[in-house]
Amino acid sequence: MLTRRCSVICARQLSAKQLVYAEYGDPAKVLKLQRIDLNDTPPAGHVHVKWIAAPINPADINTLQGVYPIKPQLPAVAGNEGYGRVEKERSGSIYRLGDI
Predict the structure, then answer these.
(1) Which residue intervals define the domain Alcohol dehydrogenase-like N-terminal in the entry (predicted)?
(2) What is the mean pLDDT of each run of 10 residues along the chain (100 residues)?
């Protein structure tokens, strides 16, 4: 009974935050912070990455404003680059646990 009870109490849901936008414009007005739930285990061929840093590049701002030549399909997640560490891996991925 104690083990079962603890597994319910101690379970945690993995989630991530992302900045999304559904229209182009002033970044302060169009960006929305969104939390998404992740599966405890990534799909085959994928990894979970713990982000360490994600810079804001002038191209990111231009993309949000809609003036960059390449426009993503909306809605889109803001940003093009980041630095992180692989926290979970699945077979079929070219990345391994601990890779940066």
Answers:
(1) 44-98
(2) 54 82 97 92 92 92 94 93 94 94
